[in-house]
Amino acid sequence: MTWVGWLVFQSPDTQAWQNDYLQGTGCEMYTETLSPSFTGMTFPQASELCFTKLKLLLLAIEIKGEGGADSKISINPRGAKIAANTQGFFIAQSADEVKRAWFYCKACHEDIKDETLIKKCKCKNCKLFYSIK
Ligand SMILES: [Zn+2]
Q: What's the 103 CA to ligand 1 centre distance in angstroms?
């Protein structure tokens, strides 16, 4: 387990089902930038969307410090809103799976039931966005 994994594991805020998941799967911790579709969601909303739609467990996010302060990893920050280009910390089987969090587009993927179909989409908004990264 990575140090972030350990941190999450030790956190009193980590919910029981998340701990079970951590222990049960042998998955690893990955980081990925959350797509623009997550911006403005609360952490619980984003986490639920990741779990139900993307089949990813979002455990923590990076909160950027204000006024040049260091950013910190915030585990299960219930009240936090997702800012643009937030780094998420995920439990998943592979780095490829975690890319779904980056590719997820509300306009294109909202009705998709099979998470393996969530790939880089071709809509106008996304094209603009992906060309920046
Ligand atoms: Zn799209």
A: 8
The pLDDT tens digits of the residues spanning 35-57 come to: 999 999 999 999 999 999 999 99
Cα atoms found within 13 Å of the Cα of residue 122, Cβ hemisphere only: 0
Q: How far apart are CA 21 and CA 83, in angstroms?
A: 26
Distance 129 CA to ligand 1 centre (A): 10
Q: How far is the CA of 109 from the centre of ligand 1 (A)?
A: 7
| pLDDT reported for residue 132 | 53
- What is the pTM for the complete model shown? 0.78
What residues contact 108, with CB distance under 8 A and at least 6 apart? 121, 122, 123, 126
**H-type alpha helices, the chain:** 3-10, 16-25, 43-49, 95-103, 106-109, 124-132
Do 37 and 78 meet the contact criterion of CB atoms below 8 Å apart?
Answer: no
Structure-block tokens of residue 72: 């910190």
- In the reported structure, the alpha carbon of residue 22 is separated from the centroid of ligand 1 by a whole-number distance in angstroms of 31
Measured in angstroms, how far is the CA atom of residue 131 from the centroid of ligand 1? 13
